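Researcher: Please translate sequence to structure tokens.
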Amino acid sequence: MRSFIFNCLFWGISAVFALTCYGLSWLPWRTPLVKTMIGYAHTIRFTMYWVAGIKIEVRGTPPKGQPVILAAKHQSYADGPLMLAISGDINFVIGNGIEKFPLINRIVRIAGATMVNSQGNTTAAGALEDAISRSHGENRPILIYPEGGLAAIGETKRYRKGVYKIYQTLERPVIPVATNLGLRWQQEDWEKSPGTAVIEFLDPLPTGLPREIFMQRLQDAVETRTRALEAEGQTFQEQMA
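Model: Translation complete:
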């Protein structure tokens, strides 16, 4: 019953905010749209806690207004909203699967997102290059999911080269982000599991690393810590059972 109530609220709240954000996307200023999107993110986090019983614990230091790259594990529909709630205005790289939701394509584009397809290729030639070009001089984090899609608990997908291209071109440090959110809200699942979910910001990777070393260090950092958080969350579930 708890999951049913939450899901009804989640989709209802999302619809209201989508309509509001779509209207704001036609304004000549970006700020009202971004602030409303962040308000939506906080609303979802609040609803997750008070209705679904999912508490979000943040570890490490979330960057706000900093020119860094967030390379995060992606396990749940809630990942994006929670990153907005935690880090504020983000220049994010997002899979084009979001286009199946009405109005969202324009909203995320005006908000500053770059649409890439689920296999990691751009939907239009030069889209990623355009995003990198727009990012020069911006003091806000870039969020990218290096695996290019949702991963199940315990799953590691191939890390794609887009994250290195951004890292190399912009010469910004990369902050790996691990999570066990999938234990509470797995991918697109209807059923939610009460408990604490952790989002952890790890030590940044310095600029200037060769591609092979960078990709390996990034994957090792995210996946090793994610597996540890999954084990931690599963042990807690067993103790509470």
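Researcher: Any highlights?
Model: Helices lie at 2-24, 31-50, 79-87, 104-111, 127-135, 162-170, 211-240.
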